[in-house]
Predict the structure.
Amino acid sequence: MDVRMELSRVIITELGDQQVIFLREVGGDRGFPIMIGTTEAIAIDRRLKDIQTPRPMTHDLLANVIEKLGAQLTKIVISELRNHTFIATLHLMTTSGAVEIDSRPSDAIAVGVASETPIYVAQDVLDTVLNPPANKSDRLELLRQRLEMLDEQIAVLSERMNDEDFLSQMPDEIIDRHHQQLEEMRNEYDAIQRVLRKLG
């Protein structure tokens, strides 16, 4: 059974190439984040806010093609979690019948968000992301992936905080927030390293 979800937040930061969207259960309290690329995050945010561009961007173009062909995007389903990667499907209704198209969740949501297309997540996918893996090797792999992402973000932010030109142009509140983010990421990095050492 698929669970109806909604896009609750889009978080865009300048740290690295990974951004975050949060999905939340409609009428419930379950939810989870999905890491996406900067381009897709900006596209989702722009289409949510109905910010127009002089010429159609990629996701606008796809939405326009669907409409001009007389089809309708009826729903988006995140149907699978394969090797820690979410797999989504665009469900279209055309004059010839129903059509399903494989997609990344970020692209699917970027196409459908402007028309408030319903988002669903398969129950087994939701169960997997909300329950920690029972397998030790899976837990270790997830921790290692998080450690790698933190390492990249810490390196980017540390370089920025040592850049005199950057510091001279930024307001004090931005610099303070960056210092706080850097400290939080380093603390999480150290904590994950301790867990990894303990787990072997």
The CA atoms of residues 47 and 91 lie 20 Å apart. The helical segments are 38-48, 58-68, 105-112, 123-130, 136-161, 164-169, 172-199. The chain has two domains: 2-130, 136-199. The radius of gyration is 20 Å.
